[in-house]
Write a structure and sequence with these properties.
By secondary structure, the chain is an alpha+beta fold. The protein has nine helices and 23 strands. Helix 3 crosses helix 4 and helix 3 runs parallel beside helix 5. Belongs to the ABC transporter superfamily.
Length: 364
């Protein structure tokens, strides 16, 4: 297990980068704590796999350092970093049995035969492949092979970190849930530092202690699932986390009020002078519909009943937004206005969250 420090780290695939836009991974300075489980979450091309491959040693960064427990491993080969990595598509030895595949990382390091046998049995049980232990890998399905890859990554107990690069892509949906649960149990049992790359928010939020959200080559927020949901540090986080994501309204901010679609909205707290593009973010759960009275003019476009709640799609000033009505709550007849719960309001300047003046001690 290891504390992982990213010191002034950045990477460009260009030989002679001229500016920030030429970097696939923009400058990072972060410390990831020993024994915690992290998820790298973001859309395709945001830099997740680049960062993971730098941590593993498969890629040398253009600048900066990687430290494991304060030891510089930036130029150390993968083998010297004592990590295990599981890739998006299965990497197995087809001519070996499932048992031999699982045992290989341990035998390669001279582990005791009895320990190898017991550990392989434990991992086979964990991935649901006890009955296939003596089958050749060649004849197995893609998802079975990926389970072997996961098992080989988890079989060693002495690794500094376990790295997973979208490992459940080829796994069927039911097995995904089971394997996520097993990975979480493994983390609780052995306390490995785990980093899990995914573009699936459900995988990230159910697996990780902390989620690292990436956008355009940059880490825009590191936080618990609750922190990401309640206080998105960047508009992308609000959009990407949640289903549907956070509503973002263009707004003119003046102290404790905002002007949205020609209507004054109480922000619940004062804000100082803001520069640049200013917006108000409100999750659908904090949007209320009304028929007449005060509020931002809105037109109900359609209502989607998804069982536990209804998603109401709204038109506000020509843009589409969402509200959520919990089970048992109906949409008011003739609804044409929306208001916001002040506790659910976030204010943004140039896409970054701004803390209200009355709560300056709170992280922005």
């Amino acid at each position: 297990m290891a504390k992982i420090t990213l010191d002034n780290l950045a990477h460009s695939y260009l030989r002679d980068p001229k500016g920030e836009d030429d970097y696939a991974l923009k400058e990072l300075n972060h410390v990831w704590n020993d024994g915690e489980a992290y998820a790298l979450l973001g859309s395709s091309g945001c830099g997740k796999s680049t960062l993971l491959n730098i941590i593993s040693g498969l890629l040398q960064p253009s600048q900066g350092r990687i430290l494991f427990d304060d030891v510089d491993v930036t130029h150390a080969p993968t083998a010297q970093r004592n990590i295990a990595q599981v890739f998006q598509f299965p990497v197995v030895y087809d001519t070996m049995t499932v048992r031999e595949n699982l045992a290989f990382p341990l035998k390669n390091r001279g582990a005791d035969a009895n320990y190898v046998s017991g550990r392989v049995q434990d991992i086979a049980r964990m991935i649901g492949m006890e009955a296939e232990l003596d089958r050749k890998a060649r004849g197995l399905t893609a998802d079975a092979k990926q389970k072997i890859s996961l098992g080989r990554g988890m079989v060693r107990e002495d690794v500094n970190a376990l790295l997973f690069d979208e490992p459940l892509t080829v796994i069927d949906p039911h097995m995904k849930w089971e394997l996520r649960t097993q990975l979480k149990s493994l983390h609780h049992e052995f306390g490995h530092t785990m980093i899990y790359v995914t573009h699936d928010q459900t995988e990230a939020l159910t697996f990780a202690d902390k989620v690292v959200v990436m956008y355009d080559g940059r880490v825009v927020q590191i936080g618990t699932p609750q922190e990401l949901f309640e206080r998105p540090a960047h508009t992308f986080v609000g959009y990407f986390i949640g289903s549907p994501g956070m509503n973002v309204f263009d707004a003119e901010i003046d102290g404790s009020t905002a002007r949205i679609a020609g209507t004054t909205v109480d922000l619940g707290a004062p804000y100082g002078a803001l520069r640049g593009k200013t917006q108000v973010g409100v999750r659908p759960e904090f949007v209320q519909l009304h028929a007449g009275g005060e509020g931002v003019p809105a037109r109900v476009r359609r209502v989607e009943d998804v069982g536990r709640h209804k998603i109401i799609r709204l038109d506000v000033d020509g843009q589409t937004y969402s509200a959520i009505a919990e089970e048992g709550h109906s949409v008011p007849a003739g609804a044409d206005r929306i208001t916001f719960d002040p506790e659910g309001i976030n204010v943004y300047a140039d896409d970054w969250r701004v803390a209200p003046e009355s709560r300056m001690g709170e992280a922005a």
